[in-house]
């Protein structure tokens, strides 16, 4: 029988980075494509399979590039189109794919389309944006995404005496996706970057892509699902194995619809970032209650077709906690970010993980091992692998977007004109939080993450969507079995600083003799389960173990 290889996005680790803050190739203080290209050996060594580039286009830079002024070009600080193509080509040669951010909910207010749209009600670009005489009353859709900065999603423009829609900042007017001309232009943009070598896109703000204006100028909700299916079919027609990875911060039921579950064919997004699971994971860690995480994974709908959830611990935004109840959110704030200046818009934390874990390397390692042990494609944010912290003096969400730390010292080689790097964890070990210091240290976080990537790709047990939680009789320990194509790995994670004895029963069918359990994370450590499958495994404070279950002779039934 010929084994089918899983589609590439199911067994690749994704790595999100901003070219501007990653690596400076020409010494001008900004990261750039030549600098990033030089780092491909490192990313390959780490085990990255796909790089997700945050927006790299010309922009007004009022939302770190998510306010684009030209979709067909490269921000000149980052290099040229030629540098971009050279980078994508080299990435491919390293076995690494590249996807880009697709920001189509809005443009910058300085984009020529919007400048033309503002010129008059009869401008040919007027209907490219959403203009109304009076904002609709009430609290329903559309909502203001950054209410502390822009409380209303409507902005009055006295030039033409109308209001335009901006669900995000006032300088990011929403495109009118109900307009076929806008859709056709977006297809040209998408086709352009696919032709230059991208393997797909991370669809920014996917659930927000829904309001347009009808003929009379009234707002009308256009069907976001039909639109995403249209976009996916265009992408696939140009490049059959390109993907759409969506930012869908919604509860599972709603988020799953973006994977095309309604039609059952998986014809919308290829992958969906798992925001509900991420939030439940932080709640479970804060309360040291693994059941919260287990329950959320068990209620997560299985993606149809070749669809996939993408899980993450932190991303480039605030650690958003808006799917939790107020009590739950406060529990996470209290445990991981109690100070006011650590919070963002009342709904999240502008911290990276090491600060939340108070710099405890054991706990940080446990969280990443947990992430890699769960069924989903893992997405890392640059610098997570070395435990980079944040700069709370930087404005808003920029706190977590400090330059990548390659070497010891005050800055990095990238973007010295970006916010200075003063991650909290570096106060204790200022020189340790960089690639150079950790690369050859077997106990470093970098070595740990590299090991997790290698094992999670190497062991087929991690390849499927299955997840089998096991009883442990230890309240703060999570035990689960990953099973795929006849291979079994028992994963154990201690959420507490108190050691635990996890008593588990593996239902593998009666075996002839004891079952060998070999710890993949701690070479040399091994356990034995009884022929019945019963085993007791000791876990130190915040320890994790991935125990590979030996194949054994089974009793004939
Ligand atoms: C989501 C992005 O992750 C965020 O950084 C950005 O501000 C908004 N979308 C608007 O594009």
Automatic annotation (TrEMBL):
<keyword id="KW-0378">Hydrolase</keyword>
<dbReference type="InterPro" id="IPR013780">
    <property type="entry name" value="Glyco_hydro_b"/>
</dbReference>
<keyword id="KW-0119">Carbohydrate metabolism</keyword>
<dbReference type="Pfam" id="PF00128">
    <property type="entry name" value="Alpha-amylase"/>
</dbReference>
<feature type="region of interest" description="Disordered">
    <location>
        <begin position="408"/>
        <end position="429"/>
    </location>
</feature>
<feature type="compositionally biased region" description="Low complexity">
    <location>
        <begin position="408"/>
        <end position="419"/>
    </location>
</feature>
<dbReference type="GO" id="GO:0005975">
    <property type="term" value="P:carbohydrate metabolic process"/>
</dbReference>
<protein>
    <recommendedName>
        <fullName>Alpha-amylase</fullName>
        <ecNumber>3.2.1.1</ecNumber>
    </recommendedName>
</protein>
<comment type="similarity">
    <text>Belongs to the glycosyl hydrolase 13 family.</text>
</comment>
<dbReference type="InterPro" id="IPR006046">
    <property type="entry name" value="Alpha_amylase"/>
</dbReference>
<dbReference type="GO" id="GO:0004556">
    <property type="term" value="F:alpha-amylase activity"/>
</dbReference>
<dbReference type="InterPro" id="IPR006047">
    <property type="entry name" value="GH13_cat_dom"/>
</dbReference>
<feature type="domain" description="Glycosyl hydrolase family 13 catalytic">
    <location>
        <begin position="16"/>
        <end position="401"/>
    </location>
</feature>
<keyword id="KW-0326">Glycosidase</keyword>
<dbReference type="GO" id="GO:0043169">
    <property type="term" value="F:cation binding"/>
</dbReference>
<dbReference type="InterPro" id="IPR045857">
    <property type="entry name" value="O16G_dom_2"/>
</dbReference>
<dbReference type="InterPro" id="IPR017853">
    <property type="entry name" value="GH"/>
</dbReference>
């Amino acid at each position: 029988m010929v084994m089918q290889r899983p589609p590439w996005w199911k067994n690749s680790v994704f790595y999100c980075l901003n070219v501007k803050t990653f690596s400076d190739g020409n010494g001008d203080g900004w990261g750039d494509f030549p600098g990033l290209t030089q780092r491909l050996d490192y990313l390959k060594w780490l085990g990255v399979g796909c790089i997700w580039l945050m927006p790299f286009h010309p922009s007004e830079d009022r939302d770190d590039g998510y306010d684009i002024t030209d979709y067909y070009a490269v921000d000149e600080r980052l290099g040229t189109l030629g540098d971009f193509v050279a980078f994508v080509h080299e990435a491919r040669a390293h076995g690494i794919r590249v996807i880009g951010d697709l920001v189509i909910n809005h443009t910058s207010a300085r984009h020529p389309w919007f400048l033309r749209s503002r010129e008059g009600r009869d401008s040919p670009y007027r209907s490219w944006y959403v203009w109304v005489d009076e904002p609709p009353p009430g609290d329903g859709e559309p909502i203001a995404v950054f209410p502390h900065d822009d409380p209303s999603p409507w902005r009055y423009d006295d030039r033409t005496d109308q209001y335009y829609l901006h669900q995000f900042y006032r300088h990011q007017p929403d495109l009118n996706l109900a307009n076929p001309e806008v859709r056709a232009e977006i297809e040209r943009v998408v086709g352009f970057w696919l032709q230059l070598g991208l393997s797909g896109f991370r669809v920014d703000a996917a659930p927000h892509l829904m309001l347009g204006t009808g003929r009379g100028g009234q707002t009308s909700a256009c069907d976001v699902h039909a639109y995403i299916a249209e976009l996916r079919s265009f992408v696939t027609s140009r490049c059959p194995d390109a993907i759409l990875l969506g930012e869908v911060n919604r509860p599972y039921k709603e988020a799953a619809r973006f994977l095309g579950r309604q039609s059952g064919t998986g014809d919308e997004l290829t992958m969906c970032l798992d925001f509900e699971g991420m939030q439940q994971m932080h709640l479970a860690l804060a309360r040291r209650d693994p059941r919260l995480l287990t329950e959320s994974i068990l209620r997560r709908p299985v993606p149809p077709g070749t669809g996939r959830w993408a899980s993450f611990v932190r991303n480039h935004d605030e650690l958003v906690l808006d799917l939790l109840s107020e009590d739950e959110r406060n529990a996470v704030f209290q445990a991981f970010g109690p100070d006011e200046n650590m919070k963002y818009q009342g709904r999240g934390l502008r911290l990276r993980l090491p600060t939340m874990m108070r710099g405890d390397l054991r706990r940080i390692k446990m969280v990443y091992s947990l992430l890699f042990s769960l069924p989903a494609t893992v997405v890392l944010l640059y610098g997570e692998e070395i435990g980079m912290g944040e700069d709370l003096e930087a404005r808003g969400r920029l706190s977590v977007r400090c330059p990548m730390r390659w070497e010891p010292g005050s800055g990095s080689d990238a973007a010295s004109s970006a916010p200075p790097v003063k991650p909290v964890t570096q106060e204790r070990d200022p020189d340790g939080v960089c690639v150079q210091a950790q690369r050859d240290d077997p106990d470093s976080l970098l070595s740990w993450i590299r090991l997790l990537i290698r094992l999670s790709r190497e062991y087929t047990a991690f390849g499927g969507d299955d997840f089998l939680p096991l009883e442990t009789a230890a309240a703060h320990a999570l035990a689960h079995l990953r099973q795929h194509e006849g291979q079994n790995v028992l994963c154990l994670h201690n959420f507490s600083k108190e050691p635990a004895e996890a008593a588990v029963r593996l239902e593998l069918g009666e075996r002839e003799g004891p079952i060998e359990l070999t710890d993949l994370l701690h070479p040399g450590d091994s356990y034995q389960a009884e022929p019945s499958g019963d085993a007791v495994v000791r876990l130190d404070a915040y320890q994790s173990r991935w125990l590979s279950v030996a194949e054994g002779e089974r009793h004939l039934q």
